[in-house]
Amino acid sequence: MAYNQTPRTIDIVDHELPYDSHNTYDVIFFGDSIHTTVTHDPDVATQWISQTESIHRRRLRCLIVGLDVEWRPSFNRYIQNPAATLQLCVGRRCLIFQLIHSPFIPSAIIDFLANPHYTFVGIGIEQDLEKLEDYELGLNTKTVDLRSLAADEYGRRELKSAGLKQLASLVLEKEVEKPKRVTMSRWDNEWLTPPQVQYACIDAFVCFEIGRILNASASTSG
């Protein structure tokens, strides 16, 4: 089933798998089809990691990974909700791992995030890593904040406070929609809606693409 947002540019196809453990989607973003797996199952997440590393085995010493985290919004300054989902994107493959519903964090995820040869890229990625600390994740993750990378690349200091929409427009020349109704939605729900899946996938994919184009892995070498 397709849920169309902007004709021919942004779309999602729900594969409607007959499983309780996971579902898959194809998220269409300006001609790129991102195969997206949504799961709370440690075994499914482990399989995604294994397949991704196999597909990209020739570039594992300089792998770039788009990373993003979503959590249920809190309207109380004294209450901070834990991370609900971890999104990882490599090429046209995306994993949305529902941390909050997983019985445990598989070692494959732990090892993937700690691999010193992998560069994880995102917007405000340090805040995402702080959220992952609730699950004892991200403590040894090699990261690049795309805002600083873009600021250096373009010689524009103001980009250090840019958002994903601005960087996508500048680097990719593509417009990213971030509807507030999705941004502020219940990311801790057991079953994410297609708009949530589309939003989460595109965030991670766009981070990956910006990191790839700006050669983020080179900025952490040496």
TrEMBL record:
In Pfam terms, one family for this protein is: DNA_pol_A_exo1
Query: Is this entry keyworded Hydrolase?
Result: yes
UniProt entry tagged with the keyword Secreted: no
Q: Which InterPro entries match?
A: 3'-5'_exonuclease_dom, 3-5_Exonuclease_domain, RNaseH-like_sf, RNaseH_sf
Which biological process terms from the Gene Ontology are attached to this UniProt entry?
nucleobase-containing compound metabolic process
Coiled-coil annotated residue ranges, if any: none
- Among the entry's GO cellular component annotations, what is one? cytoplasm
Q: What is this protein called?
A: Werner Syndrome-like exonuclease
Source organism per UniProt: Sesamum indicum (Oriental sesame)
Q: Taxonomic classification, please?
A: Eukaryota, Viridiplantae, Streptophyta, Embryophyta, Tracheophyta
